[in-house]
Amino acid sequence: MRAADHQPGGAYAGAGVDLAAADDAKERIGRLVAGTRTALSVGSVGAFGGMVRVPPGMRTPVLVLSTDGVGTKVLVAIQAGRLDTVGEDLVNHSVNDILVHAARPIAFMDYVAGAGLGPPELASIVEGIARGCRKHGMALAGGETAQMPGLYAPGHFDLAGTIVGVVEEDQALHGDRIVAGDALLAYASTGLHTNGYSLARRIVVDRLRLGVHDRLGELGTVADVLLAVHRSYLPSVSPVLGRIHGLAHITGGGIAGNLVRVLPEECEAVVDPGSWELPPLFRLLQDAGGVATEEMRAVFNLGAGLIAILPPDAVGAAQAAAEAAGVATWVAGEVRRGPRSAHFAR
């Protein structure tokens, strides 16, 4: 949990770690954590471990766990002075990672490591995490903050988290239900989500020579566009999970690289690039950076943050559920019989 190393006197402060500030940060963060407690929470805030109950009434519950970060998106947040959005990104990304197995999130743990972060900055980061947890009815069961001067530049940090979800064993998605003839239903992203930022930042900063407060064409400021929060697809997918054969969260590796992860043997996913128009942000990055189409497809989500694989007769219900949640969808291809692979149609 959020413990700080202690050393008597003022030597630790001289080495770059302010114990008084650490105690202040822990107090602020403790209040944020307490605000996410749910009926499944057990124990007190500030213990050495976080505890949650498995939801009652489950027959054969299986825990689904995932750990991830938000990559170099934190550099944009630091430059813009907006530290809460990446916290919410972290939660939403993690929720999507276990959603692909049909799991419901029940607990989250975060890790913030950096240097020179004061109580307001730490509280802002954790506020975003807590906000994401509250939106999903999930407990922020604990976490860790670590001040590491010498390892991180002053004011810089990294962010990671671990999510715990639960699903009935016979309802978990593994991709084994996918068959030839299934449709690929794409769910719109809110932008880059949390992947491709090293390339995007290079294009925006080095090629276009823009700062975070400059405008990125008609899209808005660089900060507004690049810090758009990673969308959670739980509300749009949950109503139809029972009719879905497989789900792919489109993260690093792009559409094909993530689709292939959920396919069974003798199934190939064929993505139709003509089924949607590339969103303006991705067109701008490709044109300004001179990025080849194949590289764009390998790095970015191209506007599709999640792809569901489902029978054609379930597409209508899935699209209706997504529309009710405010998420645009489109049929982006199909599954065919063939060697296990995922690729774009020529």
List the defining traits of the structure above.
disordered N terminus; 12 strands; four-stranded mixed beta sheet; 33% helix; six-stranded mixed beta sheet; single chain; 346 residues; alpha+beta
Instruction: Evaluate the radius of gyration.
Output: 21 Å
Separation, N- and C-terminal Cα atoms: 51 Å
- Residue-averaged pLDDT, rounded? 90
* Total helical segments: 12
The total of beta strands comes to: 12
Topology:
Blueprint: H1 11-14, H2 19-34, E1 41-42, E2 51-52, E3 61-69, H3 73-80, H4 84-99, E4 104-114, H5 119-135, E5 139-147, E6 157-168, E7 183-188, H6 197-207, H7 222-226, H8 234-237, E8 246-249, H9 254-259, E9 267-271, H10 280-289, H11 293-299, E10 304-310, H12 315-324, E11 329-337, E12 341-344
Parallel strand pairs: 4-5, 9-12
Antiparallel strand pairs: 1-2, 3-6, 4-6, 7-10, 7-11, 8-10, 9-11
Helix pairs in contact: 2-5, 4-5
Describe, in plain words, how this protein is organized in 3D:
The model is unreliable at 3-9 (pLDDT under 50). 33% of the residues lie in helices and 23% in strands. 45% of the residues are buried. Strand 1 and strand 2 form a beta hairpin. It is of the alpha+beta class and 346 residues long. It has helices at 11-14, 19-34, 73-80, 84-99, 119-135, 197-207, 222-226, 234-237, 254-259, 280-289, 293-299, 315-324; strands at residues 41-42, 51-52, 61-69, 104-114, 139-147, 157-168, 183-188, 246-249, 267-271, 304-310, 329-337, 341-344. The protein has twelve helices and twelve strands. The radius of gyration is 21 Å and the shape is globular. The strands form three sheets. It has a six-stranded mixed sheet.
